[in-house]
Structures
1.
Amino acid sequence: MTTLSGHIERGLHRFPVRVYYEDTDAGGIVYHSQYLNYAERARTELLRCLGVQQSAIRLDHGILFAVRDCRVEFKRPAKFDDLLEVRSRLVNLKGATLGASQEIWRDEDCLVTLDLRIAAVGENGRAARIPSELKELVKLQQD
């Protein structure tokens, strides 16, 4: 069942996104930077589906998540009023980093692929270990 947070199916999180006028240029084509916003929302909702709220991680552990690096491949454009699906999978969890592989689809067409490394950082801006309870939830999602 899909909720506002999407759903996880065999380790793959699926998150629906509608393209609004504000996401596009005058020709109705989605701005390239908007895909990063869609992917960010999907990663947040993936964690929410796992029972993790980033605000609680910050309060309880003093940890924030920041994109360390991101490789994006734009294959086809999305357009105004398209219904897209961001498909996300968490991969290679390490001490202070988490890998994510994401794709943005319209129907049967993959429009954008993203490969990211997310760093856990303390409020001082330095690398911090990912809390063990989050590691366990991520490992369960990967199985």
Note: Residues 30 and 82 are 10 Å apart (CA to CA).
2.
Amino acid sequence: MTWLPSYLKMARCFCWGDMGMLCALPYLFGLITLWSCSQIADKIGRRAPFMAIGFLITAVTIYAGTYVANNMVATILLSVGVAGIAISLSGAHSIMQSIIPKEVVGTATGVMNGLSNAASAFSPLVIGYIITVSGSYTGGLLFLSGAAVLGSVCMIILTLQNY
């Protein structure tokens, strides 16, 4: 989310006034996907398939949003991409608690959150570096799309293991 306002302003030439609602779209889409997918995952007792699909949606829509010419369509695609990540929010902790022995769930949760926060802090640096070197947001967005593909592959492996 840290890159979206800059991307919309610099690469897609939106004015600051137009971006208020546009920057809220990923949160709105994320709320809807988080709530609905969490409900369905609880009913069927599986989370990894939803996470695999969510990461795949993220990868495809960020990739497509990078190359589509229409600014509004690009913004909607990127918002859907960011919202696809929301599908994994509840599933990640649930799966981790299913895999890890009860005695170390607290430690594992701390490690998982620490690694997640480190990746969240590191990613904007990588994206910024790619943008600086290339002079374009395209490489940074493709980095995000590639990370989502990797996440989807990991979740497909857990799906095959019935998580």
Note: DSSP finds six helices and no strands in the chain.
